[in-house]
Amino acid sequence: MGNAKKVPMRRCVGCNEMKRKKELIRIIKTPEGEILLDPTGKKNGRGAYVCRSGECLKRAVKNKGLERAFKMAVPKEVYDGLAKEMDALG
């Protein structure tokens, strides 16, 4: 029997579905309190994950998924910036 490699799973803060980490985009809160998109998944900070669809980001805004994950209020400008960056990633 071969050792099956464990696939890291994460929960999307928009749709609350468990998916492979590679299928999701990581959003981080830096130690300075800045909220950024982390396409590499390697930046330092508290991470939350969202599906690659704009629909899940809208759901995360509506159900305050990012605010719960980061334990802080997230300004609307940050959500707008994240939406633009996600569109750029495709």
Reconstruct the topology from this structure.
Layout: E1 9-11, E2 18-20, E3 24-29, E4 35-38, E5 46-51, H1 54-62, H2 65-70, H3 76-89
Antiparallel strand pairs: 1-2, 3-4, 3-5
Can you offer a commentary on this structure?
This protein has 90 residues and is α+β, with helices and mostly antiparallel strands. It has a single domain (9-89), classed as YlxR-like (Hypothetical Cytosolic Protein, Chain: A), CATH 3.30.1230.10. Helix content is 32%, strand content 24%. The chain contains three helices and five strands, in the order E-E-E-E-E-H-H-H. The chain has helices spanning 54-62, 65-70, 76-89, and strands at 9-11, 18-20, 24-29, 35-38, 46-51. The strands form two sheets. Strands 4-3-5 form a three-stranded antiparallel beta sheet. A hairpin with a 5-residue loop joins strand 3 (24-29) and strand 4 (35-38). The longest helix is centred in the C-terminal third of the chain and has 14 residues, at 76-89. The chain starts with 8 loop residues before the first strand and ends with a helix.
